[in-house]
Design goal:
This protein is an alpha/beta fold and 601 residues long. It contains 18 helices and 16 strands. It has an eight-stranded mixed β-sheet, sandwiched between helices. α14 links the parallel β12 and β13. α4 packs parallel to α5 and α5 crosses α6. The radius of gyration is 24 Å and the shape is globular. The N terminus and C terminus are likely disordered.
Length: 601
């Protein structure tokens, strides 16, 4: 049961289940806490919280020292490559104003370049232009404004809804930027750094970077926790121009000297609000300290809370601020939002009826959000027993299983996916027909991001939300979102507003982890809790669980016997043992007992 730096061993003791026993959950990695536990569909118990190699009061990145940039002679670099197209120059100010007004765009800043309305006006290299024209008809709004600004070398804040094309908005100018810089020398780090909150989002940005960067013979890599360090380390040491990373794992590599950011001149903070929600602000600040102060910085976000505003003030200078849509919290207007006020015990039956109605006309992709990892596993087992082709994804899943689940969902072999907020951002699947909020999220910002998984790229979508009296404190915010989008408001929501006013707050934090815990808590945790963790998914804050291992050392039971144990027992689990088949697919997904009556599709 020796712990590893990166991860605990998988497995977990399964109690009251119909499947085989898994191995004991490994003691947490020396890095930051709990092991993977078993694959949740199979029901292995979570690993215990391991001892951290960091001191109890240490902070991620504390061994990194800020370079004394004022004493360092920096090589000059060029960042303004934009030449305005003649068609853009000839466009009148009235035409530009009409375009911005029609698309509900607010632009602030000095000497802001005019937007480009066609790909041919963007000033992209010919091979890149040809490829983007093959895939898309015209730039999205955020792209039409971002490209001239970014290629002019300006700092920028872009506030736009999910699915609006932000990835290409910052990646294509980044590739142009890199191509104009001197080649990398031995020991140089990346020129372009993209920070993302989750590994799913990082992987999707990496796919786009490979697709377009390879045409310019640029190397890229994706750095995130939950995967082997070896291949990532090799990519960094051999030299890469584009690095897409989650903050925790990048901090690890910077501290170990595997890479550096001395050559970084193009920085992107993608989904900045989510990174702050997840408690990554200290890591972000440590990382930015390692980058030369005259860099170009672009920050993209779906919301504009005061925390993000403060970050923009600290990191950006003479920036252009672009806001698409309402300045208040707003959902995608292409999504029809349906809210049902129900009791907790009514959810199962209502979900079953809803699925029956949605699947009468075919096999649509349906994404169901729940609040906790445990709920995701339980609901998945219940639905599979009833014949629904369902898989789940959450923070305790090993990377290989997560990749398998997402692949099955994208290709339609398992058209129903149950997820925690891990998938609320970064899940880029174009043809999701509807999103179902089985549990309402902790805050309305997360609600907006959840339903934003449908209705992407100007397509239509539908969201269904189960809202209970326990969510009453969020009723007022939800009503505002519905009214702003011109949606019908369930009259019962107005009744819950008064109840919500009388409810005592249980903390106003915008981000809550899927399970509480401390340094390995939270159901075994994915590499531990937020305190002491340096990776993507913390098990929560240190409010619950007084020992390393957390108040829920095991995924199932939360009694005191499991605080330091091997993960506790998984209750009411019906899966098989946590292992892989010879074909490489998670056995937990392949060995579930066949539902009575066979599958529905």
């Amino acid at each position: 049961m020796v712990g590893y730096r990166d991860e605990g061993r998988s497995g977990g003791y399964q109690a009251n289940g119909y499947g085989a026993y898994g191995a004991y959950g490994g003691r947490g990695g020396a890095q930051a806490g709990g092991g993977y536990g078993g694959f949740r569909g199979a029901g292995g118990g979570g690993g215990s919280g391991g001892s951290s190699w960091r001191d109890k009061d240490s902070q991620p990145g504390e061994n990194l020292r800020r370079p004394k940039w004022e004493t360092i002679k920096l090589l000059e670099f060029e960042k303004n490559f934009y030449k305005e197209h003649s068609a853009v120059t000839k466009r009148s100010a009235m035409e530009v104003e009409t375009y911005l007004k029609e698309n509900d765009v607010t632009v602030r800043g000095r000497d802001v370049p005019r937007p480009v309305l066609n790909f041919s006006e963007a000033g992209l290299p010919d091979d890149m232009l040809a490829h983007v024209c093959e895939n898309f008809e015209k730039p999205t709004v955020i792209q039409s404004i971002s490209w001239p600004v970014a290629m002019s070398g300006r700092d920028m804040v872009g506030i736009a809804q999910t699915g609006s094309g932000k990835t290409l908005a910052f990646l294509l100018p980044g590739i142009v930027h890199i191509c104009q810089q001197p080649p990398l020398s031995r020991g140089d780090g990346p020129i372009c750094l993209v920070l993302c909150p989750t590994r799913e989002l990082a992987q999707q940005v990496q796919e786009v970077a490979m697709e377009y960067g390879s045409r310019a013979k640029l190397n890229s890599t994706c750095i995130y926790g939950g995967a082997s360090r070896g291949p990532q380390h090799r990519d960094l040491t051999k030299g890469i121009e584009i690095c897409i990373a989650t903050p925790g794992r990048l901090i690890d590599f910077l501290e170990s000297g595997a890479t550096n950011l001395r050559r970084c001149t193009y920085l992107v903070l993608d989904e900045a609000d989510r990174m702050l929600d997840m408690g990554f602000e200290p890591q972000i600040r440590k990382i930015v300290e390692q980058i030369r102060p005259d860099r170009q910085t672009l920050m993209y976000s779906a919301t504009w809370p005061k925390e993000v505003r403060q970050l923009a003030d600290d990191f950006l200078s003479n920036n252009v601020h672009v806001n698409i849509g309402s300045l208040e919290l707003a959902a995608n207007h292409n999504i029809r939002q349906v809210v049902e006020v129900v009791e907790e015990f009514e959810k199962h039956e209502r979900l079953l009826k809803m699925l029956e109605e949605l699947t009468r006309a075919g096999e649509p992709k349906i994404l169901i959000f729940v609040e906790t990892k445990r709920k995701a596993d339980e609901l998945t087992r219940w639905m599979r027993r009833d014949g629904w082709p369902t898989l789940s994804i959450h923070g305790d899943k090993a990377q290989q299983e997560r990749d398998f689940v997402l692949s099955e969902f994208r290709q339609g072999r398992s058209p129903i996916l149950i997820a925690t907020d891990v998938a609320a951002r970064g899940l880029d699947v174009d043809d999701i027909k509807c999103v179902i909020n089985y549990d309402y999220p902790n805050c309305s910002e997360d609600y907006v991001h959840r339903i934003g998984r449908t209705g992407r790229r100007d397509k239509k979508g539908t969201s269904y939300t189960f809202f209970t009296s326990a969510n009453a404190k969020s009723a007022q915010d939800l009503i505002k979102v519905l009214e702003e989008a011109g949606q019908d408001v369930n009259p019962k929501l107005y009744n819950l507003v008064e109840i919500g006013k009388n409810m005592r707050g249980r903390g106003r934090g915008r981000w809550r982890s899927e399970d509480d815990g401390y340094r390995g808590g939270g159901g075994g945790g994915f590499r531990g809790g937020k305190r002491g963790a340096t990776d993507d998914y913390g098990g929560g804050s240190a409010k619950r669980g007084r020992f390393d291992g957390g108040g829920r050392g095991g995924y199932g039971n939360s009694n005191g016997y499991n605080n330091r144990g091997f993960g506790g027992m998984q209750n009411s689990s019906n899966g098989a043992a946590s292992s892989y088949s010879q074909a490489g697919k998670p056995q937990s997904l392949l060995s579930v007992a066949a539902p009575v009556g066979g599958t529905r599709w």
